[in-house]
Write a structure and sequence with these properties.
Number of strands: 2
Radius of gyration: 20 Å
Strand content: 15-25%
Helix content: 40-55%
Order of helices and strands: HHEHHE
Number of helices: 4
Number of domains: 2
Distance between the termini: 32 Å
Structural class: alpha+beta
Shape: extended
Length: 153
């Protein structure tokens, strides 16, 4: 699928979901089914953008906690008088965790913290060493794909 065709399909799914919610919100099964279609198409859109343009999925960072302040209104290459530049780097990593117990053990060893979950362990390793999954022993974590986007202002 192309970026455009995926975007059109995603927009149509959002419209269908909005109609369902407006006309018959009590049909929970249908509302959930349509919401899942939006989620699936949002991921497909990101894959199409990555495949065709080399950019990451702009829809992944959207959350209920996001505010308008999180999104730059203007992107500019103008510099401040002292030539300092603001650059935001957003990186997404998709990982294959081959040995969750070993990842948690390694994170505990490296950080000295009592980590309970795999998610905590992965984040702790990232914070501890700057994110270098290729250096972990026994191929316990593999990088499936990575996308990096930048914005300057």
């Amino acid at each position: 699928m192309t970026i455009s065709s995926t975007a059109e399909e995603l927009c149509a799914a959002v419209l269908e979901h909005s109609r369902q919610c407006a006309e018959d919100p009590s049909d929970a099964a249908r509302v959930v089914q349509l919401a899942e279609r939006i989620r699936s198409l949002a991921l497909a859109y990101g894959e199409a953008v990555h495949a065709e343009a080399g950019w990451g999925n702009p829809l992944l960072a959207i959350s209920a906690e996001s505010t308008d302040e999180d999104v730059p209104l203007e992107v500019s290459n103008e510099t401040e008088p002292n030539d300092r530049r603001w650059i935001s780097v957003v990186e997404n990593n998709a990982l294959l965790v081959n040995d969750p117990d070993s990842v948690v053990r390694l994170a505990r060893e490296r950080t000295g913290r009592d980590l309970e979950s795999l998610e905590e362990a992965v984040l702790a390793l990232c914070a501890e060493d700057g994110w270098k999954p290729h250096q972990y022993p026994g191929n316990i974590i593999e990088l499936d794909w990575r996308s990096t986007d930048t914005c300057t202002g």
